[in-house]
Each structure stands twice: as C-alpha cells, then as structure tokens.
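Quick one before lunch.
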Amino acid sequence: MSAASVQLPNWITYGLMPILNLTLAFVISGLLIWLIGESPINALVLLLRGALGNGEGVGFTLFYATSFIFTGLSVAVAFHAGLFNIGSEGQAYLGGLGCALVALALDQYVPWYVTAPFAVVGSAIFGAAWALIPAWLQAKRGSHIVITTIMFNFIGAALMVYLLVNVLIVPRMMAPETRIFLDGGRLPRLDWLMAMFGLRLGPAPFNVSFLIALVMCFLVWLLIWRSKLGYEMRTLGASPSAAVYAGVRYVRTVVVSMLISGGLAGMMALNPVLGSAARLQVEFVGGAGFVGIAVSLMGRNHPFGILLASLLFGILYQGGNALSFDMPGISHEMVLVIQGLVILFAGALEYMFRPALVRIYQNLARR
Amino acid sequence: MNQDPAIELVGIDKKFGTVHANKDINLTVAKGTIHGIVGENGAGKSTLMSIIYGFYHADRGEIRVNGKPVTVRDSQAAIEAGIGMVHQHFMLVENFTVLENVMLGAEGGALLAKGIASARAELKRLEDEYGLVIDPDAMIEQLPVGLQQRVEILKAMYRGAEILILDEPTGVLTPAEADHLFRILKVLRDQGKTVILITHKLREIMAITDTVSVMRRGEMVATLRTAETTVEELAELMVGRRVLLRVQKGEASPGDIVLSVRNLSVRDNRGVTMVDNVSFDVRAGEIVGIAGVAGNGQSELLEAIAGIRKPTSGEIVLDGKTVDQTDPAGLREMGLAHIPEDRHHMGLVLKFEEYENSVLGYHRSPAYSKGPLLDLEAIRKDATEKIEKYDIRPPNPRLKTANFSGGNQQKIVVAREIERDPKMLIIGQPTRGVDIGAIEFIHRRIIEMRDAGKAILLVSVELDEIRSLSDRILVMFAGHVVGEKTRDADEQTLGLMMAGIAA
Ligand SMILES: Nc1ncnc2c1ncn2[C@@H]1O[C@H](COP(=O)(O)OP(=O)(O)OP(=O)(O)O)[C@@H](O)[C@H]1O
Ligand SMILES: [Mg+2]
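Model of the adenosine-5'-triphosphate complex:
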C-alpha cells in the first residue's frame, strides 16, 4: 500500500507519465546538444522533419517501426508469463534464415503472395526454435531465461555468420550473403497506402510486413486478454503459486509462451530480409531485438502501447539518421546517445516520476 | 486511566472512485488505553488505519496527535509523530536476523558497528520493559509467525511509537500465541502506550480492549466502553441485524466413502516430513474437521490432497479412483474443490480483476470458454451472480482484486469453490479475516453442502469453527492423526490432544 500500489487514473499512467519521461529525455539530449555547441531547437526540428517531413521520411520511420513492433510484441508476450526474453535479437536473426530459405525455394515458381504465408511461418518456426532450448532449460532445470537467451544471441550470431560465409554464400562472391530474391520472394512496398495519404514513398522500404505486424498486434491482444492460454500465462506471470493452485501446467506454459515470443521475434526478419534487402545478410537485425525490450516496457506490454512506442522509436531512428546527416556537429554516436537516453528514461526509469505524481495527485484529489 | 486523547480523528473522509470508504469519521482514543475497532468486511477499518499511518491521504479531515494537528504525508511522518503499525502481512526481510530487521531503515550513521551496539542495548531495554522477549540473532525465516509478529512490534517500539496500530493481528496466530500477544499489549498499555486493535473476533475485543468502536459501511456508528457492552450488541451494531454466532445443524447422514487417504506421508519444501503415515476417510454427507495447532502438517495434508504437493508415499483415492497427485486441474474435473488456506498466496491473483479470479482453476471448463478463447460474457455474468449471492462488496466484477477488503477477497474464493457444486470440498481456514455476518453465511453454506450429500474436509486453527461445523474431529499433532473425537468433544480434551499430551 505504499506509493507503488496507489492506483492512478489511466490517463496519468498511460498518458502523462510516458510524456514526462520523453520530455525529460529530450531536455537532457537538448542540453548535450547545446553543450557541443549546436542548437537543440534546430536539432529537434531537423529530427522531426527527417522522420516525418516527407513521404520518404515517413516511409523509413514506418519501416523501422515495423521491426520494433515485432520485437516489442515478442518481449511483451514472454513478459506476461513472467519471463524476461532478452533473446529476441538472436531469435529474429534465426527467423531471417527461416524466411530466406522459403524465399530461395519458392521465388522462381510462385508470386509473392504465395510465398508470403510460407515465409511468415518459416520465420516464426525458426525464431521459435531458437527460443525452445532456453525455454526448455528454464522450465525443466530452472536455468535462468535471461542468461540463456543472452547466450543464445551469441550462439545464433556465430551460427548465422558460419552459414552465410560457408553455406549460403553465392559462389565466387565476396559478401557473406545469399543471392538476391526474385520478385516472388519479396514483400512488395506499400506505395498505395502512402498514396492514400498523399505521400510519395520514394526509395523507402516500407512494405507489407507492416500490415503483418498490425495483424500480430491484434492476435497478441486476443491471445493475452481473451484466450485461455493467455489467461494461464498471465496467472503464471502474476503469481506462480496461484498458477500451481489453478492447475496451470508450468512446463507447458513456459515453453509455449517462449515459442510464441520467439516466433514473433522471428517474424521481424520479414521486414528487412524480404521487405527491404531481398537477401539474407549478416547482422541485419541491427539491435531491433534490444529496442524491443524498451518498446515493450514503454508500451506497458500492451499491443496498442507497443504500436505507439514503436512509432516513437521509428521516428528516433529515422530522424536520428537524418540529423547526423544534416548537422555535421552531431555524429552518429551522438544520435545513439539520444536514443539511449530515451530508452533509459522511457524504459528503465519509467516509474521515476511515479512517487511524485502520486503525491501531487493525492493532494489535488483532496480538494 | 488517563483521559488525555492520544489521537483524535476529526471528520476524516475518503473515497476510492465511487466507493466511499470513510464517511466523516470522528474518533478519539485516550492515552494509555487499548481501543478496539470492529466492523464488517469492507467497512473501512484498514483504510482508516492506512490514513493514520500515511499510506493513504484523507480527502478531508484532520488527525491530531496529543492534541496537536499533524499532517501525515507518508509513513515516515507517521513514525515521527509516534505512530507505529503492525501489518497483517508482515514486512520483514526473511533472511535477516531480528536485530537487522529492527534496525533496517534506522541504522544511524554510515558505519554499522555503532548502530548495532546501540540497537542491541535498546532491544534489551524493550525486552525488560515490555516483556518482548526474543533472540536478537535469530533468523526471521526460522521464527514462528507469533515471534515474527513480535519483531514487527519491536520495530515500531524501536522507532519510538507511542501509538501502536494492529490490523487483524491474530488472524495467523495460534490461541497460545494470541494470548501472549495480548499480554504484551496489556504491558504496553500499562506503560502508557496507546493501542488500536482491529479484529473480527469479538471475544478478543471483550477480553482485552478498554473501549471499542463499531464501523459500518464507512461510518463510525458507535463507540462504547467494553465493560458496558456485550458480544451480541457489538454483532448487531456491526451487521445491523441479529447474528447467529453458532449455526444450527442437524445430524449428519453419512453415505459412501468419497475420499480415502491411505498411509500418506508428505514432506515440506525443506524436506522435513510433515505428514507421517496418515490414513482416514471422508464420506458423502459428512464434515470431517482436522484440528491442530498450525504447523502440525495440516497445510501439507491439504496441499497433497489438492494435487499441489506430491506425497512421498501413500495414496489418495477419490470417488473410488486413485488420483494423480500432480494434477490439480484433473482433480477439479473429478469434482474436488479446494479453498486454500492462504488466499493471497494461492487462491487469488491480486492483479486480476475480480471476474478473472472468479474462475481461477475453472477457466478451462466449457461453461467459461468458446474454443480456445474465454467466454468473457459468461464469466462476468457468473461473477456478478456470485457477487450478489455472497454479498461481495463493492459489487463490481471489474475492480482489481487487490482493492477489495480482506474479508471480501476471502468471499471471492469461497464463492468460486462452493458454487462449483463439487463432490468433495476441502477447506483451509474458510473464515480467516471474515466478519461475523459472513462467517454465519459461509458456515451455513458449508452445512448446506453437507446436507446435499457432499463430502467435506475442513482444516482450521479455530477450534470453535471446527467444533461447530464438524461431524467428526481428527486431531493432528506432529504429522500424525493422534485421535478422533465426535463433535461433542469438549474444548479441554481437544486442546490437550492438540498439544500432544493425551490421545
Ligand atoms: N486502493 C483501493 N482502491 C479502491 N477501493 C479500495 C481501495 N482500498 C480499499 N478500497 C475499498 O474501500 C472499502 C473499505 O476497505 P477496507 O480495506 O478499509 O475494509 P476493512 O474494513 O478493512 O475490511 P476487512 O475487514 O475485510 O479487512 C472496501 O469497499 C474496499 O473495496
Ligand atoms: Mg482490513
């Protein structure tokens, strides 16, 4: 019954608090920018213009956001079952192998919309498979999922490099990557969707994966809040002892939750591999798995929150790129620092303002 | 008796959304007295105490300590004003010693050594002065609940509490531990401290308090001198009608054996054998009570029968079938319902909304699902019916379970398990924290279940409860069933058996 358990209205928890956190992150970033002698206001304007100023910017923003939605959902699903899956990064990497194999096998014979369902399933299966062993170790032996999933990120990275360098590489080529997929193995871009808003996509790789991500948001919502399995996952996550009492089977629930989580992470690969590069490359995940943790935290593990948080991080990524391009004083590293600050305040320190808000709220409520 | 007020509440008002938990409360507690507060579940007792202790803020009203108005912004401020609180759920660090727990947050200085020495001396003084005897170097997790509670009291006294609030302190205590607690409280009072005691056990109120207040639906309806009132009067003031303190029941007509426990042995988490070669039967249409001092294996026995704890040997036969001892869900399907001893630990997920808890364990049943999805409409309708039938307050299935008062949380569990209409019902502490009106109701439901031919196994540390409900009484001591008595057995005989003295 300390401040932590005082109930605040939803608009404070889900509206005001994230906004305050974000504002603080931006204020500190602004201070840093000011310290290195650039104008914070200018930087903010450039960032926003880069991310939202034209069709191409918006396209890139949405492209990045798509990846974050998948990894954010992945982290959230595991989290509801009380599991902290740090392995979305590695699961997404392996997911890339799954969808690339599908694309390589089918792209010569069928159109994209036939390949797509198989690619979704392929990426999910590979991502899930990469989560299976940590899940099993957690369920059966109590090996902590945080440790095992981190280790599996490294193992996954090594495995993928090995496969790309030795197996999947196109003979006599230098780059460790597969051949380029034909149209039948690509996810088309969403020019039409942008056109509906009067925007021109330009070269931005905003593609069909975004729609798949939206469908996944809905399915995850259905799973967590409307299904029996989701109910059992939430029971396990909120009270392991009550879960035993209720007859929730621990091993099964842990493994299934992690498979779903890994599968969602795996699907993230659709976006860069089939939607953008049209080939499998090393390190295509690029940290999206870790951003998923921040996105999930910030989105309060709810699909709708995750959607919003993903858009925010999409803006930061795309805007940050534009910023380091347009403002010579601001290096790529500086942009990383800003992104880091947002993650820090919106993710790790998300409850920093809570005690103060509780106090202010209670004082106001007295009136 | 000193008549100066230690604490005065003037016009305290508190709302949680639409729930008016405290309505314009006025209360004066004189210095050097023990003041009891009674009231139905959800009457607002805990809320009022939380306001005094700074957990909640009153919407309106004033708190005066020793005649001076104070603003209790948080529990730190409460401590500074000389107010201490012993929570129903202890807030101790399990793997710290008594001394470390007492010092925690009041270490004094950057280096521990000096603080430790003075804390040790202070503990010694408290021990001498108030009879708060305890080994300062004992590890909390190794202490029985009664002593853990004493540590909570010591913590408050160590911080200089002049006013001590105890919210349902005896719910988890054995009768002997409760007696000891009361002796301590009397010493505290005689030394000039003020004690505020919340309890549902009117006997305790009569035994130890000087004055008593009754709350009903957020209002303070009466403040009386204990010597001038009776249990019956208090009960009526609380509930607003006459209450049967002991439910009437007819003779049992036992039928076939429903549950048969054969040579069962069970170990606890530490690997200690808690149930040792126990055998008994429960027949349809009878209530078998298991009496015993807490910690003599009753909890483990219940858990083993419910499929939560795997026995080391022996078997359990339900309805003629040997059961799989690791499958609570399967057992439920076979018609076993289980009201667990500890609602916070097992019976409820506090984060869930009420309706979600109203199907915990039964969520896979066809009545509540549509394919892989939950049938929320059916669940909520069902929850609303149970809320009405069991008078769960506030009647809102969408409220977070943690925001129900303790007794109402218990009703959520009882309603869920009884309304499944099981063949076999196993019950642990069915009325812990429940008000007398609700006890009457729950007892009545249990007897109706019996009369409808259900087999019932009841574990309770309340000897009164065992005696008024059971048709047969088994006494457990140190993991063994040391004897069986009929329900006419007198309290003394049972007490001796529970202590392992006579068989
Ligand atoms: N944080 C909260 N949010 C919403 N409602 C609350 C909250 N805390 C308490 N309530 C409501 O306020 C009322 C009073 O609750 P309180 O816990 O004070 O009752 P109580 O008298 O201590 O009951 P019990 O004997 O069952 O412990 C109840 O209806 C309860 O549901
Ligand atoms: Mg209470």
